[in-house]
Design brief:
678 residues; mainly beta; nine-stranded antiparallel beta sheet; six-stranded antiparallel beta sheet; 4 helices; 7% helix; globular
């Protein structure tokens, strides 16, 4: 997300200075007694070591795996063993189109090591693998240049990669690209991903049999005999700790309850290199202890967001940099103090974006970027006679496309900002890489997506002035009734507690985060036994108490069979325009292998009373404890002759019931009268 004013940036930098002065373990002094020792580099046959007197980073040569991080007297904050997936490493999941393979997992290893720069103030290292189409057949057809940067006096280090597909390379589809850190299992025991979600965690061994039993899928386990009895009966699942890009500034682990508490944090200073825009949800930190940065991933969206690179297509992208921040607090021993400090550092890193020290010419510096300014207005004459300033809008630039296409884009860069209620709809998108984009927007409280009619070309050092841009949300007539709030989330709908003792979810997964509980798909059948599906009565019911957030299946038999479920909306009409067309709008926050059927007053399909969607959705957000995935919107035209004065009924059935995770999550429903209906 693009961040605000010069004042905000200055405040963030001030917070950083104060935090480091008052909270952090002082940097190791050099022989002269100064606080910032020069950065040193030692290159050995199979190892490279970079040391700035605060942190020492060890990497394998030439593979570029981060094998050691030394800080605060600890020999190694990482869990490192012989082999690829330990310590810090980059990996991908990819396949060759048409091959029939589900995905090839590959740890990205360099074959050529290079010192990019080595001064007393900065060391930048390159570990590169180069794909040569004329010499190689098979294998990942991408060249990858992994970089590590250590700056003088910095309590951490930076990681980024430049990924390139040559024009003569064969086609490839990449479904996952990430940077992962496996941390010292004896050192880290407290995890934090947000202000609300942070706690002491079980260990990786607690997830193994016989201490745990597998639940509906491999990522979820029930802790039956953990080493620490406080976790007994709890569910552990990494998806319970996922975050939207817009909320994922920093996450990580703390070694708490020990002599020298310290934190290991992954900071994302910008989301321009992330895919799917501000609402794309992805993994963060989870039991291991593990912390990841997902640069590409299909979670919560599905195959629509796979990066598909064709034969003959030249493509290059800079992934990162992200900052690994280390802090300690020996005097207080409070993990929340370390979290607060990490947040301050993360905002300070964001204020410095785009970094000026990155050596790769593919990373655009500030002088190579521009900005876009304008004002977004909303025009809905059924809400206001005047155009309304969009006071809480998301406005962004992404690759040219149709309205809403940003949510499944994965190959380019995206730049987003938000408007505030006091902004009058004015927006500024800063630090935009030079190039051609579409301007996209969506406004909480209104249905639909906006895309500017003309493409926007951003040049270095300039500001593109768009003036007023007007978003007209979809609308056919006046609102007769509505359920929920159009905000692309199901969290405001009815999300019950999953009662123990079968599944004991963490007490943190409550309130606004209740949707993260494991077992909500089973809880539905407990609340609504067969034949007792919910009925929502307009004027009496409320979406937060009476509209279950997910439309799920019901277990029909002990042998694993499932049945569709139906919910109803009852409403009264004082009069009916028999020759008019009414519109039922259904906005869905997520969908997985679903098909909806809408039936009006029990009428048959031949009379137009039963309307259906095709099968849609691949995000699996129900299983992965999301409150949203990809937005889906449907418009069902209803002939006035199917309605009647007095009580009416609309039944919605999710007809596909092959497993418990087929279904949808509701964002918002609205019935509109015909145009001119009063």
């Amino acid at each position: 997300m693009a961040r605000g004013s010069t004042t905000t940036r200055a405040l963030a930098l001030l917070l950083l200075v104060v935090a480091e002065a008052l909270l952090l373990l002082p940097a190791a002094a050099n022989a002269a007694g100064t606080m910032a020792a020069p950065v040193t580099l030692r290159v050995e046959h199979r190892q490279v070591l970079v040391d700035n007197g605060v942190v020492q980073v060890s990497l394998s040569n030439p593979e570029g795996h981060i094998t050691g991080v030394r800080y605060g007297g600890e020999r190694n904050l990482l869990h490192s063993k012989h082999g690829g997936n330990s310590g810090g490493y980059w990996d991908m999941v990819w396949n060759t189109p048409g091959s029939g393979h589900q995905g090839n997992y590959q740890i990205l290893e360099g074959s050529d090591f290079k010192v990019v720069t080595a001064t007393q103030d900065q060391v930048e290292l390159s570990f590169r693998r180069t794909y040569n189409a004329s010499r190689q057949s098979g294998g990942l057809p991408l060249s990858v240049d992994k970089r590590v940067v250590v700056l003088r006096g910095s309590p951490g280090f930076y990681c980024y990669a430049v990924v390139e597909h040559a024009a003569d390379a064969p086609a490839v589809s990449v479904s996952e690209a990430r940077l992962a850190f496996k941390l010292n299992t004896a050192r880290f025991n407290y995890m934090a991903v947000s202000d609300a979600i942070q706690r002491y965690m079980p260990s990786a061994k607690d997830r193994e049999s016989p201490r745990a039993s597998r639940l509906a899928y491999g990522e979820a386990v029930l802790l039956v005999d953990p080493a620490n009895p406080q976790f007994k009966g709890e569910v552990d699942d990494k998806y319970q700790y996922s975050l939207d890009n817009k909320d994922n500034r920093v996450h990580g682990w703390v070694g708490a309850g020990q002599g020298n508490p310290m934190g290991f944090w992954v900071v994302t200073p910008s989301n321009e290199f992330k895919i799917g825009g501000p609402l794309k949800r992805e993994l963060t930190s989870h039991v291991g202890p593990t912390s990841v940065t997902m640069f590409l991933g299909t979670h919560y969206v599905g195959n629509d967001i796979v990066a598909r690179i064709d034969d003959g297509e030249y493509w290059k992208k800079v992934m990162g940099p992200v900052f690994v921040y280390l802090n300690s607090n020996p005097s207080k021993g409070d993990p929340r103090a370390l979290w607060e400090d990490a947040k301050a550092r993360a905002e300070a890193e964001a204020a410095k974006w785009p970094y000026g020290f990155v050596e790769s010419p593919d990373f655009h510096k500030a002088a190579e970027r521009g900005s876009v300014v304008g004002r977004l207005l909303v025009r809905d004459r059924h809400v206001s006679r005047q155009d309304m300033p969009a006071g809480t809008a998301y406005v962004g630039l992404a690759a040219p496309g149709q309205a809403g296409s940003w949510a499944t884009q994965s190959k380019g860069y995206q730049f987003w900002t938000t408007t505030s209620p006091s902004s009058g709809g004015k927006f500024t998108i800063e630090n935009v890489r030079a190039g051609e984009y579409s301007l996209y927007a969506w406004v909480p409280g209104f249905l639909g997506d906006y895309v500017h009619a003309s493409r926007v070309t951003v040049g270095p050092g300039g500001a593109v002035e768009l003036g007023d841009v007007v978003f007209e949300p979809p609308r056919s007539g006046p609102t007769l009734w509505e359920i929920g709030v159009p905000d692309r989330s199901a969290a405001e709908m009815f999300v019950p507690a999953v009662d123990g003792p079968k599944y004991n979810n963490s007490e943190l997964l409550a309130g606004r985060d209740a949707y993260r509980q494991y077992g909500l798909w089973e809880r539905y059948a407990d609340l609504y036994p067969d034949g007792e599906d919910p009925v929502f009565t307009v004027g009496e019911s409320h979406h937060s108490r009476h509209w279950y957030f997910a439309h799920v299946t019901r277990k029909a038999s002990d042998d694993g069979g499932y049945a569709p479920t139906t919910r109803q909306v009852r409403f009264n009409l004082g009069r009916v325009a028999a020759n008019g067309v009414y519109t039922l709008r259904v906005a869905l926050a997520a969908a997985h292998k679903a098909r909806l059927q809408v039936q009006v007053n029990g009428a048959a399909a031949r009379r137009g009373g039963a309307l259906a969607t095709p099968t849609f959705g691949d995000g699996n957000a129900i299983a992965r404890h999301g409150d949203h995935g990809t937005q889906w919107s449907f418009e069902f035209p209803i002939r006035g002759s199917l309605l009647r004065e007095g009580e009416n009924n609309i039944a919605i059935t999710q007809t596909r019931a092959i497993n418990p995770f087929f279904g949808v999550m509701y964002d918002y429903l609205r019935l509109e009268g015909p145009q001119g209906y009063l």
